[in-house]
Amino acid sequence: MSKHVFDLHERATHELVAEQLRTLADQLAAGEVSLSHEDWRPPTVVVDPVDVVVDLSRKHHHVELEIRMRWPLTPEARTR
Fold first, then answer.
1. Pick the residue with more confidence: 76 or 18?
2. Bridge-partner residues for 65, per DSSP?
3. 3-state helix, strand, coil in the chain (%, to 5)
4. Is there a domain that residue 44 lies in?
5. Is residue 41 one of the residues assigned to a domain?
6. Beta-bridge partners for 36
7. Is 25 domain-assigned?
8. How far apart, in whole angstroms, are the C-alpha atoms of residue 78 and residue 72?
9. How many domains does the structure of the chain reveal?
10. What tens digit of pLDDT does each residue of 50-64 get?
């Protein structure tokens, strides 16, 4: 079962995007990610190990940077 929590599509300056990524990095370091359009939703707990894919592609007219992360929902799920 999956439950959609958050997505964001935005055009912004690279400085603003860098600040948003630093905020996200700080949340990951603290072990909880708070991304939600609804204030009542609790933070998502980050459980080790975290699998990360960073993909940088140079296209004909633009560049794409995709960062994908995945981790278990609970510490018990790590062995599954």
1. 18
2. 56
3. 30, 25, 50
4. yes
5. yes
6. none
7. yes
8. 6
9. 1
10. 999 999 999 999 999
Q: What is the span of the domain harbouring residue 56? A: 14-79
The rounded distance, in Å, linking the Cα atoms of 77 and 14 is 37
State the pTM of this model.
Answer: 0.80
Inside any domain, residue 3: no
Strand 51-58, strand 32-33: pairing: unpaired
Report which residue type is found at 68: R
E strands present in the chain: 32-33, 44-45, 51-58, 63-70
Q: What is the pLDDT of residues 2-40, one digit of tens each?
A: 666 677 788 999 999 999 999 999 999 999 998 876 667
63 CB contacts (<8 Å, ≥6 apart)? 56, 57
Side chain identity at 65, as an amino acid letter? L
